[in-house]
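Interim report, section 4.2 (structural modelling).
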Amino acid sequence: MEIRKISPARIFTFIIFAIYAFTMVYALFWVVMASLKSHEEFIDFPNALPTSWLFSNYAEAFNLLDVSDNNMFSMLFNSVWYVVGASFISTAVCCMAAYVLARFDFKGKKIILFIEFTVMLLPIYGSQATLYKLVRQLNIYNSPLFLIKSASATGQIFFILLTFFMTLPKAYEESAFLDGAGYLSVFVKIMLPMAMPSVMAMFIICFISGWNDYMTPLIYLPDFPTMASGLYVYEQISKFNMNKPVYFAGIVLCVIPPMVVFTIFRNKLMTNVTMGGLKG
Amino acid sequence: MASFSKQNVIRKYCFIYGMLAIGILHFLVFYLYVNFESFFLPFLDNSGNWSLGLIEIVWNNLKLGLESELLKNVKNTLIYYLTSLLTGLPISFFFAYGLYKKIKGSSFFNFIFLIPMMVSTVALSTVYKNMLAIGGPVSKIWAFITGKEAPLFLYDPKTATTSMVIYMFWTGFGLNLIMYAGALTRIPEDLWEQADLDGVGYMRGMLFIALPLVWPTFSMMMLLSAIGVFSADGPILLFTQGMYETSTLGYWMYEHVVKLEMYNYASAVGLFMTLATLPIFFIVNWLKRKLPADIQY
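Predicted structure of the assembly:
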């Protein structure tokens, strides 16, 4: 029997991977174990396994973790509408803009593409103050209407979809146009279904980053805390008077939805996201 | 016939600009107006009159050199920037290549490496903070190895920034890893078969086959990272709130806008930051034009 020789580089890579994986798995294991202890037990033995496994901490998290009259149920609800809404709006607007810019020649296209590149490549740092002021003036501060801020057709999501639409063959839409189909129906009935794997991948990326984004809701939606921003605020206001295992239970609950989404769609993400193409 | 063709052109333009309308409106309000006004804010005093007072204040602060509060923030920002550049580019690529080449257990590692992307930074930073705390596993290991009591990692000016840099390394993989993985899967399989026959090993395959072939992705990511120099605000809000000499420009901006509502002063500092980035912008633009012609963005 032939034994395949494993190269030292592969062994080295495996060791690096294993060390990294151990730290990550241990950290997650540690927080799950800590979430199952009593407060006293956590203070006395933070690194030991729980003596009695208090799954009730998870039920308590829904009542105890309260931020400006929002318990975990409200935070979960806020996360869902904010993240699904923002991801849908952002992906849809980027998809529409990417499609026409990739597939049509028209007056103004070059200027728009120039602006797209400039916006992506020229960061303007002083705008946070004006943006904050504008959001307040438009009365979308601390309101679900803040979702309109997500309707941007710029950035990485736009460019990934632009790349994708540029690679699709022209034959499908050309034959549809010859059959008398309108522009909108070609987009909705032919191009969008073909682009669906990439569009879904972008939606999932927006969903996961939106779910984990604590900064935007913290600044612009203070009365609508999401799971991420709410847990951050709770930690700040209860620093010295906190039942840590219950708080950790909240942290574990916050982590579950994006992990489930990611696990289900992992393969789609890994094969449908690229930017910059392949040389050759 | 001519009117049919004209009608078709009108229909086409209605469709195109209809599809672009929301994006354009958003750009006009949330980008153009916002940036236009933020350009003027530094030149207005509290009563709304034209003044160079704020510009002078910022300039005088910068002239203090090492004692300047703003330059201390710049120093910390650059530390986080270099950290994210290192994890986001070469290390992410090294990890993505290992997964692509199916290192033993790659399916498991694939899941693990993407945890920082899946899990909220609030959650990860909480875990990290508690692991570093007195009595936590890291301080126990520290005491075991050195025989001394562990420092207050995140609450000591000597160790706070280093602790946060380690955190950034630990959690720095994510979208970049996915980008590289996506690009690597597009390399034709027969190329690897040929390389195997020629005896090309693991590292040579990474450096001389994979890297040149995904270079468009790599260089695009590099360019995007290069211009974000002052955006690297680090996890300051989560860990130290700017204390223990850890504040960055991003955190400084947050504090002066949201907490202190000093909009004009914050805009004045922002103006200086933007001006400092302009040379990088032009270099990046020049490099972008030098990229191979078959690149699709």
